[in-house]
Amino acid sequence: GQNIDQPTEMTATEGAIVQINCTYQTSGFNGLFWYQQHAGEAPTFLSYNVLDGLEEKGRFSSFLSRSKGYSYLLLKELQMKDSASYLCAVRDDTDKLIFGTGTRLQVFP
Amino acid sequence: ETGVTQTPRHLVMGMTNKKSLKCEQHLGHNAMYWYKQSAKKPLELMFVYNFKEQTENNSVPSRFSPECPNSSHLFLHLHTLQPEDSALYLCASSQERGGPQHFGDGTRLSIL
Fold first, then answer.
1. Strands A60-65 and B107-111: what pairing?
2. Can you give the pLDDT at residue A101?
3. Residue numbers of B between 26 and 55 with CB closer than 8 Å to A
4. Where are the alpha helices (DSSP H) in B1-112?
5. Burial of A58 from C-beta contacts in 10 A (0-12 / 13-18 / 19+)
6. Higher-scoring residue by pLDDT: A16, B51
């Protein structure tokens, strides 16, 4: 079956670094996406990893290990506006996106 | 502004009503999607259209009926819905099927 696991909630302090993990077991793998979703708003695309390794984009980085079925999203220099849900999604072998339940991150001053 | 516009933003309807959700994308994308988002559950793919052709129906009940008249517009026709259908319905588009998706803000649907 298809399974995407990520923590339900995390908290962190402004200015700190936080790592949000995602593990997956899916029928095939064609890449992994991270999305950010603020309450009441649309999910917005953050990153896409298809090869192993780290992709850096400003304060956000995403890592993938295909052999371990594992990814993480790293957020540096946290800001209050980073409080949101972070969705991990795997593109399976039919090009469908399978989403996790999301990790709700709260950033405190 | 994500380039994907959904209307209405909120909809309250009785179980016997018929209504339609509308989605329009201004990004020139070729694939469009309907998702259902319920509290504490993963985003659930409902339908996929690629170049106006339906390529995926994820075992969705027939009381949900999609329509894609062209690559820029997608509708979800609703009739005789159940209370468990109350959720946020999100539309998305991507340049090619399986690519990074751009989402609309969704329609918050409540069934009385």
1. unpaired
2. 94
3. 40-45, 48
4. none
5. exposed
6. A16
